[in-house]
Design a protein that fits this description.
2 copies of one chain form a homodimer. The first copy, chain A, is globular and about 65 Å long. Chain A is built from 8 helices and 6 strands, in the order αααββαβαβαβαβα. The first copy, chain A, is an alpha/beta fold.
């Protein structure tokens, strides 16, 4: 129904997560109405990401060089490693400005339903890095797959690098969270991990 | 925080309607993980839309030639013109397969709040086309701006092309609509435009 070039762009937009026919149509029509230089920049940015972006060879974070800015930063404590699922989590954590160690990006989680096995993840190099570390903080999500991966990493590290301290980020009520809206698992965690008030 | 090429792509995605920082991040990371040929196709589709797509010189609908497929179609009744806000509406209407006339795309609506004046719209050529038409169906949305535009077009056509019949699409309860969920304006229309049952 749409002219061919517009239809093609709609199909491309539909590759994006959560974008259906209607949204892709809106996006494509906006592109038609946009300034040519914005669209040129968009097309260039797409190709640049594919051509220039790599995984850091140390931690697996996204970067344009062989090593990411965080791994290259000598002021950071290389002996504390925060393990996360994806590069997005590194950004989220860095926004807090609370963590001064380094990261390790797994590029996924172990998942029975999605058929993701430990060997599909960036785990082998974590074991190598753990040998020179004091603490490994497992920062995977508080989901089924996140917990499975956390448990797997804990056991693997206990076997292969017995001297390193393995910790898990706290579970509990989120900031602004209301008790009566929290699910049972959250409340169970919030209760069992309670701590003495100052 | 993100590598430069990724940040640039996130900025480009944020130009799309309703796309904020988080969504743009998800889109950009998906592009990083996509197949190179899909991304190449995406970049090409963006440029193609800017370079190949034009407004039909007769009706203002989107097309790749000077005239759109609907205006070129000799089986359609050129004496009945359905006036819509945008090319999206043409597609929506064509999906019903009920209308066999031609369209006229205004490319917007008169809007006091957005500062869109009648002279910003594709109205002058509608008056020209109306001179050879039997009926002009005003198919703008049932919103404030849609009604304003409909009223303006009705008066303008009555002055300039007094012999043409000007009609407005029906307002009322949408298919599947529940009476107790409908707002008062909809119900008022549904009542006043009631018709005899067969």
């Amino acid at each position: 129904m749409y002219p061919k070039s517009l239809e093609q762009l709609i199909q491309s937009f539909k590759l994006l997560p959560g974008v259906g026919e209607k949204t892709a149509e809106r996006y494509a029509l906006l592109i038609y109405e946009s300034e040519i230089q914005d669209v040129e920049q968009f097309a260039k940015a797409l190709m640049d990401v594919k051509e220039n972006l790599h995984a850091c060879k140390i931690c697996g974070n996204l970067c344009e060089d062989c090593e990411c800015d965080l791994c290259k930063d000598d002021t950071r404590n290389k002996r504390v490693i925060f393990v996360v699922q994806s590069a997005k989590d590194v950004i989220a954590m860095e926004k807090t400005n609370e963590f001064k160690g380094v990261y390790h990006v797994l590029n996924g989680l172990i998942s029975a339903t999605k058929g993701v096995m430990p060997e599909d993840l960036n785990i082998a190099s974590l074991i190598e890095r753990a040998k020179d570390a004091d603490e490994i903080i497992i920062g995977t999500s508080a989901t089924m797959d996140g917990e499975t991966t956390a448990m797997y990493l804990d056991r693997l590290l206990a076997m292969q690098v017995p001297n390193v301290l393995v910790t898990r980020i706290a579970h509990g009520l989120p900031s602004g969270g209301m008790l009566d809206y929290a699910d049972e698992v959250t409340l169970t965690h919030a209760l069992s991990d309670r701590k003495k008030m100052q």
